[in-house]
Amino acid sequence: MELSQYLEVFIEESKEHLQACNEHLLELEKDPENLQIVNEIFRAAHTLKGMSATMGYEDLASLTHQMENVLDAIRNKKIVFSPEILDVIFLAVDDLDAMVESIASGGDGKRNVEEVVEKLVQIEKGQLLNQRNTAKVEVAATAIEREPSRENQYDQFETTVLQQSADQGFFTYEINITLKSDCLLKAARVYMIFEALESLGEVVKSIPTVDELEEEKFDYDFMVTLISKEAANKIETSIMKVSEVDKVEVREFFATSYSGKQAEQSTTEMKELEEVQEETKNTPVTKEVAPIENKQSEKQTATKISNKTIRVNIERLDILMNLFEELVIDRGRLEQISSNLKDQELHETVERMSRVTGDLQNIILNMRMVPVETVFNRFPRMVRQLARDLNKKIDLQIVGAETELDRTVIDEIGDPLVHLIRNALDHGVETPEVRRANNKNEEGTVVLRAYHSGNHVFIELEDDGAGINKEKVLSKAINKGIVSKETAKTLTDSQIAELIFASGFSTADQISDISGRGVGLDVVKNTIESLGGSITIESEEGKGSLFSIQLPLTLSIISVMLVEIQAEKYAIPLSSIIETAIVNKKDVMHAHNQTVIDFRGKVVPLLFLKDIFDVPSTKEESDYYSVVIVRKGEKLAGLVVDGFIGQQEVVLKSLGAYLSSAYAISGATILGDGQVALIMDCNALIK
Asked: Mind giving me the DSSP string for 340-406?
């Protein structure tokens, strides 16, 4: 069987099972008596072990098997669950995650896990538990030790395979093979023996493993388990035909005779799993896996509704998106031709085509949408570890994890959120002692929230900590030369708060592993602005802070206002525009060497795009300015243009590496008449 074709599915499903383990372990920490959660973790680990063994990743399967033994002992009440055990299982999951990542990046998935395996074995024997549990531990450890060593020779997955083969009329043989002591090419002989065996049946297991046999990491004898319909004497004859084989012993056996409880348990689990799968397949309604003791656990463990989905390589979606972008350009061209020719029939056809491509656009954009929970899911575990390192009590609440964002944005938003959460835990939420002294709950609350608003997604991080100490921020900013003392006196509270985004800025008195180096929040701001988004801060000292990130739904097709600057056409993203206005030159004022206008009671500076982009003059000046009012956070600016063309959906194309430094230009688009229009970056224009 060619396994490489299944590698992508294996990696995706392994990540899903490990994520499920992480989530259920966090639930188990809050509700250690709920054995149903242990069952869920056991199922995920069991499936991962079977998949790893099938794909030939023995190290992965071995570590998962060891973790599974501990979980099995917990669910059978041989071991009493404790925080120490949880920490070790988390370490095992981390190692499994690293091994899967290694496989995903083209590695072999091998990793030194001796320390974790040793701890898991100690737990299984009852050596890591608290003193108060010693009586129960001794009984459990004795029970485990009394089990025959042969019982562990085949895991549950292998036992199930052997039993199912026996039901289908196959014989199962254990074959001990000894090579001659003067054999020079042991690996070659092993290969020839396996060739002979695979022509007679299917090899299920070998001791040592196939990899060790190929690397000649054995003396002269090894054992192979074979499923076949051939007689034992025929198998023995076939192996003896291979040169330098000294001795062959073939014994028939039955899986149940060695597997006992494991086999029964495996079969029961398989039946339960099949029943659950059958129920979810046939019934569109959510069903419970099994009746359990309390209502709360019933709510947690209801199985999800079965969805009809397929896995599609993201590259295919990117190709589809690129082709559709070309279609959007052609659509614009057709609309232009239709309006020029003024042919009714052509106009109706183009209108219908526009509606259909509009629907197609929505479908394709939705296909690229990914729930933000794919990013949010990794934070509970991170917060748990950080809270322990900082000796703080943190309650992380996630709201709106089902909110969807374009995959390109999802790929980039993870690191900025990590920086913000670390900042909230280290600088924001106080220690339990300080919170008690301030009449606050010992446990700090951090809320991670996501929601849609128009063509944007907002991600907010709110904490009920100490807030931003504005005097300290201002003092540090002056010391570092970020602002002058004169400028500092004119800054508003929100402007002071935004100083923490300055490069190299940190209010930490000492550098730690978590923060204090002054790298982080400036990276956060730069990343978000490069995605066409913005970040704002609201903070009240002693009450807490709210970081709000505004992001566009998609980065490829955007709505713009087309404008003229002399003979050239430019596009301004609609997401930045507040409104357009015609201003009489007489109403223009001058203040602080800046041309400004009075816009609805606010003083708004004017930016003359003709001068900024150095556009050659071709038109006569009129008595009025055409102005586009744009916004960046709380700041406003008026962009002076020569004329408004209208609103249009355009495809955002990158300018490439050579023009990436072009000031205030984020990209370009091809218009319906074939002309190229540059797309402005309003964030860069407003400083």
From this structure: HHT-HHHHHHHHHHHHHHHHHHHHHHHHTEEETHHHHTTHHHHHHHHHHHHT--EEEEEE-TT-EEE
